[in-house]
Amino acid sequence: MEYHISKLLLIGIAIVVSYYFGEIARKLKLPSLTGYMVVGAIFGESLLNIFNDAVLDSFSFMTEVALGFVAFLIGIELNLDSLKKQGFGIIAIILSESFFAFILVFAGLYLLTGDVSLALIFGAMAPASAPAGTVAVIQEYKAKGSLTKALYAVVGFDDGLAIIIYGIAFAFAKSIIMRETTNASLNILASSIEPLREIGLSLVLGTIFGFIFCQLVRTLKTVEAILIIVFGSVILITGLSVTLHISLILTNMMVGFVLVNTRRQSLVEKVSEQLNLIMPILFIIFFFLAGAHLQLKQLPHLGMIGLVYIFSRSAGLIGGARFGAVIGGVEEKIKKYLGLGILSQAGVAIGLALIVKHELERIGTPHANKIGAAVIMTITATSIFFEILGPILTKIALEKAGEITKEKK
Predict the structure, then answer these.
(1) In Å, how far from its chain's centre is CA 175?
(2) Helices (DSSP H) in 294-365: which residue ranges?
(3) CB count, 10 Å around CB of 197?
(4) Is there a contact between 377 and 295 (Cβ–Cβ < 8 Å)?
C-alpha cells in the first residue's frame, strides 16, 4: 500500500516543533518568531525540502488569513483619541520614511549602475514593509506606550503609501524601457490610477464592513459567539479582498479602526481578548511558512546591488522616520527608536518583485529581462536579511524605549 504524507500531519509537526524552537529563541533573548522561521527554513526548500513550492502553495491561504488578523489587530490599536496627540507627527513620519527610502535606494543604485529604470524599480520596492513581524514582537512582549502606538500606526498605513509609490515609479520605469527599443510610450497617468483605485476601494470596503461587523458583535452575549464572528468576519473580508485584488491589510485594518472608534471600550476589550487567544497559533503558522519560503541559496547572489539596497533602504527608513518625527514634534523616544522598528520586509515586496518580473517579461527586451531577473533575485535575498533582523531590532527599540513591561520567561 502506498502512503502519501498528509498535509495536516506536516503542519501539525511544524506547529509543535516551531513552538519549542520559539522557546529556545526566547531563552536566547530573541523574539520567538526567529525560532519559528528557523524551523521553516529547515523544513523548506533550502534544506529538507519537505515544504516545497507545491506544499507551500496549498498553505498560502493560511498566510493570507494570518495577515488579515494582523491587520485587524493593528486597526484596533488606532484609537483616534490617541492618534490625535501624535496626529501630524505620524503623518510626517509615514511620508518621510517612505519617500526617504525610495529616494536613497534610487540614488544609491543609480550611482552604482547608471541604469535609471533599474534604480526606479528598486526604489519603488523600498517603502514596502512587513507589519506581521513588528506586530508579533509587540504582542509577544506585551509592549505598551507611545512608541508602540506609533509603530502600529506607521506599519498599518505605510503599506498604502508604498503601493502608490510603487505604482507611479514602476509606470515611469516601464515607459523608459519601452521607449528605449520601440519608441512606444506608456500612459503613466492611467498606470498610476490603478494603485489609487486599489487603496480607495480597500478603505471604502473596510469602512463598510467595519460598521456591519460592529452591528453584529454589538448584539452578541457570549465570548464564544464573539470569537466565532471575529474569526469568520476576518476570513470573509480577507477572502473578498483577495478576490477583488485589493489590499487585505488595509481592508481588515479599517474594520478594526471602525470598531475601536465607534463602540464602547468594554466591547473592544472583549474582541481584543478573543484575538489574543487566536494570534499565538497564527503567528507560529505565519512565520513558519515565511521561513519555509526563504531561499537561502539566493544569499551568495546578493552582490553589490543587494548590499546597496540593504544599506540605502535601512538608512532611508531610519533617517526618514527620524526626520519626520523631528518635523512632527513627537516625543524623544519616538524620534530615537521608531526607525528601528519598521525595517522588516518580506511578502509584499516579494509579491511586487514577482509582478515586476512578469510585466518586464511581457516587454521581452534583453534589458527588461535583465532587470526583472535582478529584481526577483535581489529582493528574495535581501528579504532574508530584513525578515530575520527586523523583528530583533523592533525588540531592541521597544526595550530602549522602556515599553516592554513583561519579559516572557
Answers:
(1) 28
(2) 303-328, 332-337, 347-363
(3) 13
(4) no
Helix (H, G, I), strand (E, B) or coil at 30: coil
Residues 55-77: pLDDT tens digits? 888 888 888 898 899 889 888 87
- Within a domain: residue 50? yes
Rounded to whole angstroms, how far apart are CA atoms 230 and 1?
A: 43
User: Which residues share a beta bridge with 44?
Assistant: 51
Q: How far is CA 115 from the centre of its chain?
A: 28
- The single residue listed with the C-alpha cell 536613497 is 104
Query: Does residue 125 have a pLDDT over 60?
Result: yes
Please name the amino acid found at residue 293.
H
Residue 2 lies in a domain: no
**CA–CA gap between residue 329 and residue 87 (Å, rounded):** 10
The residue range of the domain holding 392 is: 7-400
Question: Residue 237 has which C-alpha cell?
Answer: 473580508
Structural contact between residues 92 and 273, judged by C-beta atoms closer than 8 angstroms: no
405 in any annotated domain: no
What is this structure's pTM? Answer: 0.81
Q: Which of 146, 121, 112, 182 lies closest to 335, judged by CA?
A: 146
The CATH number of whichever domain residue 363 belongs to comes to 1.20.1530.20
Q: Tell the residue number behind the cell numbers 523631528, with chain if given.
A: 326
Residue 363: Cβ within 10 Å count: 19
Indicate whether 409 belongs to any domain: no
Classify residue 362 by burial, with Cβ atoms within 10 Å: 0-12, 13-18, 19+.
Answer: exposed
- Asked whether 308 and 118 are in contact (CB, 8 A), the reply is no
Q: How far apart are CA 343 and CA 129, in angstroms?
A: 7
Give the CA angle between residues 313, 315, 317 to the nearest 5°: 65
Structural domains in the chain (count)? 1
Phi, psi of 268 (to 5 degrees): -60, -40
pLDDT at 408 over 50: no
* 111, burial (CB in 10 Å: exposed 0-12, middle 13-18, buried 19+): exposed
